[in-house]
Amino acid sequence: MPQFPAHWIGSWDLTSFLAVGGAILSSITAGWTLYRDLRDRAKVKLSADLRRIAPGGEGKLLIVRPDLNIEGATRDLYIVVTAVNVGRRPMRWEGLGGYYFRPVDGKKGFRIFTQGLPKLLGEMEAHTELAEFTEQFANGNAMRLQIWDGAGGEWSVPRRDIKKIVTDAEKFQARHDGV
Questions:
Q1: CATH, domain range 44-178
Q2: How far apart are CA 145 and CA 110, in angstroms?
Q3: pLDDT digits (tens, 9 = 90+) for 56-93
């Protein structure tokens, strides 16, 4: 049976052991730093809902579900997009928009202009924006609703939220057309 030549280990002195140990330790440290830096970026959790605006106490406005009967609530529907920065780095929310399934007036995408953007979101900070519910959402032509930041990052609202917005709008319209 051939023996593994272990004589080279016996020829090492203290300096050789420290050099090899240092190389192994620095490789592990470099790998960990690279892994941590790649993971350490802005992460955003998005949600979107269909809402109406109603007057609240002390002159404030409330954002309410469309099925609630609140006196003075608008008949207009709004898409409410909420972004929460769940990452460890700040994120500057620059814009809100999306893409159509079928182009509208020759355009594949759309941009929604809002009041509170751009907005810098710190760690675990949330921000909500309103957008008017349009015909393109009502007929299901909105393929994607997304936000973007100044560094080129894009985050999309989950498709299930867009589908829920369309079904909630259909229920709301059916209820008010029947009344």
A1: 2.60.40
A2: 9
A3: 888 888 899 988 888 888 889 999 999 999 988 899 99
